[in-house]
Every structure is written in structure tokens, then in C-alpha cells.
Amino acid sequence: MDLKKKILPMLRWWLIYIGAALPFLWLVVAAVTQQLGADPAKEIVLELGTWAINFLWITLAITPVRKLFAINWLSKYRRMMGLYSFFYAALHLLAFATFMVGWDWKILIVELTERPYAIVGFIALLLLLPLAVTSTKAMQRKLKRHWLTLHKLIYLIAPLTLLHIVWQIRSDFSEALTYGLLLSYLLGYRYYKKRSRAQRIKPVVNHPKKMQSQHSSL
Amino acid sequence: MLIKQKEQIRSSEITSESVYKQRRTFMKSALGLAGAIASSKALALTSAPQENAPLYPGPQWLQEKLQAATSPAGFQAQDKLTPYKDVITYNNFYEFGFDKNDPYKRAKNFITDPWQVEIVGEVAKPGVYHLEDFVQPHALEERIYRMRCVEGWSMVIPWMGIPLADVLQRFEPTSKAKYVEFTTLHDPQQMPQQGSLFGTLDWPYVEGLRMDEAMNPLAFLATGLYGQGLPPQNGAPLRLVVPWKYGFKNIKSIVKIRFTEEMPLNTWNKTAPSEYGFFANVNPAVDHPRWSQATERRLPSGLFSPNRIPTLPFNGYAEQVAHLYQGMDLTKWI
Q1: Domain count, chain B
Q2: Mutate which of A172, A178, A179, A181 to test chain B, going by most B C-beta atoms within 10 A?
Q3: Is A42 in contact with A100 (CB distance < 8 Å)?
Q4: pLDDT-flagged residues of chain A (< 50)
Q5: Which residues in A lie closer than 8 A to residue B304 (C-beta atoms)?
Q6: pTM over 0.90
Q7: Which structural domain range is residue B107 located in?
Q8: Which of B74, B119, B133, B165 has the fewest CB atoms within 10 Å, i.e. is most exposed?
Q9: Is the model's pLDDT at B301 over the cut of 60?
């Protein structure tokens, strides 16, 4: 009876929840079985960073994809994707500090304050922290409309993250280009929607409240 | 990233253990003999450990020369060697891809025999030489050198090869020869990244040395490592090794050597002049604009012991090379 309403969504939830953790689990297995080559530290740091970006981009893609393909259940996973991005980003920094710097504070502080690419990456992670902390429903209720304003920080975090990759380009720019094109689509989509909404609103200035509900989806 | 072992090497290429051991014994006795004759201090050669990794014996003529190789004192770094497997699987050779593992995976079918080296420019004996003729007049040596990559990691590698100065002198550079320029093979068919649209480097790869740098006894042309031939991913069949400079100066798969009056424009200098200069001497006091050069991670690094060590001026070879740069502002001549 409840198959469609309860069991399938639950299965889907677990599938996505575990699927998103797979890159992490794979890294743990690869590290333990020594499959990461001569420089496992760097491999782990790069891989965690890549997945932090992937999940940030996925988080931003949920609304456009949901609307384009009319998959309404997707919006339920936006929070989870955002939290996974934070999870991988936090581990990325932790792995860098542990495996590459060995918690040598002198080197760590120099790295995080003097290297432009590290600075923007660090700022992006710091900005991600309040979003993770306020991701619960209780916090959402508590912060009311400020919650939405706060979570618009993602529009700053994502470009900072892109800069973090761009400033590390040595020769190959294919990866940065791919992330850049995707991000410009994801942000451009929102800009376009906002503009066309603003134009639609014009004739109905008398009923601004009616339109407000639409603004709540990022 | 599973490393497949099976396809790497044809069974016909594998040296059976007994033959391998025989060769080692032969080499050791030959070495002892040569050492006795030359009364030079020869050390035992470093052979490739068979740790489940492919071997690269090299062409027949090279194998014969390898057996007579010596390990001259004064060129043997005392640091712990980087394991063979790491040396042959962790490479920056952008012609084959940008990931460290790409060259190992993609250079398997790279044709390095036959090979020709073209000698041109300010030189009395220009010409095109078969690699065998190019190497043949010289005795092979083993040299254990530190290698410091500009990215902040380092290795210790037992190279097999010939002193660069001896080779260059053979072609009789003229008085106008102030610099030597080296060029890597340009063959997008074999080197996939040379045809890529998403890199900033101009191909073929070019590097250069000032004449006095090239004539320094440390400068070396490698034709092998770990007692055998040179694996393609390490720059087979002929690769420059200048251990007091950042790794990118060690140009791989050389097809052309040009003697010139003008300072050559090396590839990285051309691509990002504010980040990479012509000299590229290892210098902990001068940071790369985007990262520090004060320390390095000696590979392989353990996860909970990052192996981070201070980087030494001229990569620890200051005694041999610092005089070359007397009076030069090394914060400017990066």
C-alpha cells in the first residue's frame, strides 16, 4: 500500500545518502590499501576538494533541474547536498593540515594567509560554516526570513570556490573551464528567472504579496 | 586508481630472476675489475628492485653499456632512495597528460628506439646522430641525485647516464656558443596532450642552460635509472638532469641540442614569465608567487608523517654550483 508513498522515497533517501558518501568511503579504502601512489596526501586532499566543489555545484543545480525536468522530490535533497559539500570541504582542509602540513602551525598559518588561492578557499569554507550550522529545520524557523538572506551566501561561496581552482592552474585549464561554464549557467539561470519575474510582476504592482512565495526558492 | 600490472610488460620482455641475478653478479665483478684498473672509488650499482613493477631494460647496445657502468664518488647523494615504483609512476610529463599517473599509463607504447638527436647551431660538428652513436663514446655512470620539483615535492633517484660536458665538447662548440638549448620530441600522435586545446604550454617543450652551467660536472644526460634503461614516462631515451635546478629544467625525450649566442626562451618562462625564469635554481628564499618554496615534501610521504623537510639552496649542491651565479641577484634571476 505504502510502497509509492513511503518505501520508495525512503529507499531513494538512503541511496542518495550513501551514494554521496561513496567518494569518501572509496578514499578511505584506497588509502588503507595503499593505492594512492607516491603522494597519497595530495591525492586525498585533491579528491576531497573536488567532491566539495561537485556537491556545491549539485546543490546549486537542484532548483534548475527540478524545474526543467519537473522532478519535484529533488528539492528535498538540497539541504543534504549542501551539507555534503561542507563535509567534504571541511575534510579537505583537515586533510591538508594533517597529511600535508602535519599540523605545523607556522607553515599552516603562512599557507592560509599568504597564498591567494588558499585564502579564497579558506574564506569559502568559513562562509559555508554558518550555512551548515543553520541547516536544521529548527534554525530555519528561528531565523525566519533572515534564514533565506543568510543562505544566499552560497552565491558568494561558489565564485570564491571557482577562484580557488582558477588560481591554481598551472597549464591545464579544462577542469576550471568546466566548473566555470557550469557555474555561469547555474547563476545565469537564476538571474534570468529573477529578471523575467520582475518583468511579470510589473503589471500587478497592486498585489505584490501574491508573488512573494515564488521568491523563496533559491 | 588501481594500477594494473598485467598489460604493462610482455612476457618476452621479462628478465627471469636467474638471468637477472647472473647479470647482477656479472656487473659486480666487472665493476670490481674496472674499479681495480681505474683505481677509482666505485660503489655497488643500484639495481631495480622487482617490486611488482615493470622493468625497462632498454635496447641491446644500452644493456651492454649498463653492465660496464660505474658509480663515481662525489655524485652519490646519501639520502634514502625513492622506491623504484614511485619513481616510474609519479611523473610530470605534460605531453602525456596532467595527472602524475598519466605518463606511466599513456607512454607505454612510446617509441624510443630508434632515436635520433640533432646537433645544430654554434658548433663545429653539427649533424644528426643515432642515439647509439651519440652515447657510445662515453662510459655510463650511475649518479644518485636529489630532484626538487617546483611544486614542492622531491625525490632521490639513481640515474644512469653520461656527463653532459663530455658530450657537448665532442661536438666542438664555437666561441659564440654561450647557451645550449634542448628540445623535446614533437609528435602529437604519440604525445596526446600536444594536440590538446586546454593547456597553456607551447609545444615542443624547450629548455636551456648557460654554457658554464652545462659544462658543470653535475650536469648529466640520463639514459637510464635504477640500473636499467630509461622508462618512457621518465623521459626516455635521453633526458637532462641538473639537480640544483627545479625539476622542470630536466627536459625529457630530447631530439635536438642547439648551441646559441642568445639566451633560449624556455617553455615555462615563455608561458608564465612572472612565475618561472630561465635559471630556475632551487632557492628556499624566493617563493613561487603562488606558493612557498621554503620546504618540500620528500616522496613517498606517509599520511601521518608528511616528510616535510627544509629546502636547501641549490638543492644542497651549493658547493658545486654557487660560484656560477656570483654577483647575480638571485631574487631577480629566478
Answers
A1: 1
A2: A172
A3: yes
A4: 210-217
A5: 98-99, 102
A6: no
A7: 72-325
A8: B74
A9: yes
Give B126-175 pLDDT, tens digit per residue.
999 999 999 999 999 999 999 999 999 999 999 999 999 999 999 999 99
Nearest one of B236, B241, B203 to B220, comparing CA atoms: B241
| CATH number for B150 | 3.90.420.10
Cβ-nearest to B200 among A31, A41, A171: A171
**Using CA atoms, how far apart are residues B219 and B213, in angstroms rounded to an integer?**
7
B94 in any annotated domain: yes
Q: Is residue B244 part of a domain?
A: yes
- A117/B271 touch (CB, cutoff 8 Å), yes or no: no
> What is the number of other CB atoms lying within 10 angstroms of the CB of residue A6?
10
| Distance separating alpha carbons of residues B88 and B232, to the nearest angstrom | 9
Distance of alpha carbon B334 from alpha carbon B319, whole angstroms? 19
Alpha-carbon distances of A143 from A133, A137, A153, A217, B233, rounded to whole Å:
12, 10, 15, 16, 57
| Residue numbers in A near B103 (CB within 8 A) | none
In a domain, B289, yes or no: yes
| Per-residue model confidence (pLDDT) at position A204 | 53
Residue pointed to by grid coordinates 528539492:
A75
- Does residue A37 sit in helix, strand or coil? coil
- Tell me if the bond preceding B237 is cis, omega within 30° of 0: yes
Q: Identify the H or E element spanning B33.
A: helix B17-38
pLDDT tens per residue, range B49-73: 777 899 999 999 999 999 999 999 9
What are the extents of the domains in chain A?
41-191
pLDDT, one tens digit per residue, over B13-30 is: 555 544 544 555 545 554
